[in-house]
């Protein structure tokens, strides 16, 4: 999944990521200023040997042993002529972290969403594996390991011509699979040795937090002791609706008409996806006042937000999402900015994208309630500045 990788790099920082990569023997990545968040998706070139030795470190319980092409040279009588002086191995990764990554990468069920179950990435024994495919299919990789063997495979054209829809799964994957099976044939299976300091906890599958009575899907997950969640899930929430109208219940709704409904309180960036899946959202049931009057609520952008227009980025790419939520039954919803109507909506979601324009701006929505009354949201003020 690309988005979690990018967000993780954003939180860790490119400087820290490159510094950590060097501990694992990746020296191809030079100055952090030469990279951006695309580094998480392959935006930095490394060699197959470097990357394979990094995965070997995971197989070796987080211990980096370096890379040695020639161990020693002997003559026909067995006399030692040359021996490589190897450096001392170092604990580059916490063994618990290494085990967690190996556990993830060896989970055929977890990757079945993308690759399908029982793909060429699955061996007849426990094995962790990761694929990669570059833009336009110039290169693809499959790198994987058991506790005692790591193999990396590259597939591509030596002339750097693009291949035709050949991915890490269809190109390098079958080669990796066959090579691993051939080398390990007849050898007993070995599992990844689990170090001390790990704990398995039941979590709410969607949020990763502790399940509540409203959480519909739970799963067991491993954590390093001390990092397991302590907070209850906040994604699944219960609201009360009027079963005769489907709208949120209010103080005047008779008790016999009140019906509980489990809804999701998701971050703004996940709500469009949730609606496409037909999932009920708290945002769509929380835009009613206590006396039952319908209203609209501007959900994005947030009041007081400041944006900057950058000269080095195409203007069409510098847009923000403007979005409102409202009680069920609102109709003829329109979006206004600085006194001019920008868009109209016949049904939710009430959202559009607006290209940034320098200045101070006022944003609001208008609509018609179930009773036919014209209603208006509160105004949200934002500022758009030129590049400093």
Could you explain the architecture of this structure?
This protein has 388 residues and is of the alpha+beta class. It has two domains: 2-73 and 81-184, Beta-lactamase (3-Layer(aba) Sandwich); 236-386, Sandwich (Immunoglobulin-like). It is built from seven helices and 20 strands. It has helices at residues 2-12, 14-23, 48-59, 95-105, 108-115, 168-184, 268-276; strands spanning 63-64, 72-74, 80-83, 90-91, 128-133, 139-146, 149-156, 198-204, 218-224, 236-242, 258-264, 296-300, 306-309, 319-326, 331-337, 340-345, 350-355, 359-368, 374-376, 380-386. A hairpin with a 2-residue loop joins strand 6 (139-146) and strand 7. The longest helix has 17 residues, at 168-184. It is elongated and about 100 Å long.
Q: What is the CATH fold-level name of the largest domain?
A: Beta-lactamase
**Whole-number tally of structural domains:** 2
Structural class: alpha+beta
Mean pLDDT: 90
CATH level 1 name of the largest domain:
Alpha Beta
Q: For this structure, what is the CATH homologous superfamily of the largest domain?
A: DD-peptidase/beta-lactamase superfamily
Note the run of SSEs as H and E.
HHHEEEEHHEEEHEEEEHEEEEEEEEE
* Biggest pleated-sheet summary: 6 strands, mixed
Give the number of DSSP strands.
20
What's the architecture of the largest domain in CATH terms? 3-Layer(aba) Sandwich
Percentage of residues assigned to helices: 10-25%
């Amino acid at each position: 999944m690309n988005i979690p990788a990018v967000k993780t790099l954003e939180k860790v920082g490119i400087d820290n990521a490159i510094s950590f990569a060097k501990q694992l023997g990746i020296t191809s990545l030079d100055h952090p200023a030469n990279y951006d968040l695309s580094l998480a998706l392959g935006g930095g070139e490394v060699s197959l040997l470097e990357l394979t030795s990094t995965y070997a470190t995971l197989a070796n319980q987080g211990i980096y042993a370096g890379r040695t092409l020639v161990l020693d040279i002997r003559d026909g009588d067995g006399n030692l002529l040359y021996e490589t002086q190897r450096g001392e191995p170092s604990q580059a990764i916490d063994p618990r972290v290494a085990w967690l990554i190996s556990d993830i990468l060896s989970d055929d069920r977890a990757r079945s969403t993308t690759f399908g179950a029982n793909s060429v990435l699955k061996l007849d024994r426990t094995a962790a594996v990761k694929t990669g495919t570059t833009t336009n299919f110039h290169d693809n990789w499959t790198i994987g390991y058991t506790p005692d063997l790591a193999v990396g495979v590259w597939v591509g054209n030596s002339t750097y011509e693009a291949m035709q829809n050949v991915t890490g799964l269809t190109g390098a994957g079958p080669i990796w699979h066959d090579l691993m099976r051939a080398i390990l044939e007849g050898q007993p299976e070995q599992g990844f040795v689990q170090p001390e300091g790990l704990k398995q906890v039941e979590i709410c599958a969607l949020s990763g937090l502790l399940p509540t009575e409203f959480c519909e899907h739970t799963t067991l997950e491993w954590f390093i002791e001390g990092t397991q969640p302590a907070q209850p899930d906040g994604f699944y929430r219960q609201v009360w609706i009027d079963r005769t109208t489907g709208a949120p219940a209010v103080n005047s709704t008779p008790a016999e008409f009140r019906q509980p409904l489990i809804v999701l309180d998701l971050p703004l960036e996940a709500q469009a996806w949730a609606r496409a899946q037909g999932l009920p959202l708290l945002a769509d049931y929380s835009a009613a006042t206590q006396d039952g009057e319908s209203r609209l609520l501007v959900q994005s952008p947030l009041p007081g937000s400041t944006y900057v227009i950058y000269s080095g980025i195409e203007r069409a790419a510098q847009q923000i999402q403007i979005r409102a939520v409202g009680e069920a039954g609102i109709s003829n919803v329109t979006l206004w900015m600085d006194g001019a109507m920008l868009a109209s909506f016949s049904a939710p979601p009430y959202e559009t994208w607006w290209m940034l324009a320098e200045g101070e701006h006022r944003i609001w929505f208008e609509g018609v309630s179930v009773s036919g009354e014209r209603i208006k949201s509160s105004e949200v003020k934002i500022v758009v500045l030129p590049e400093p």
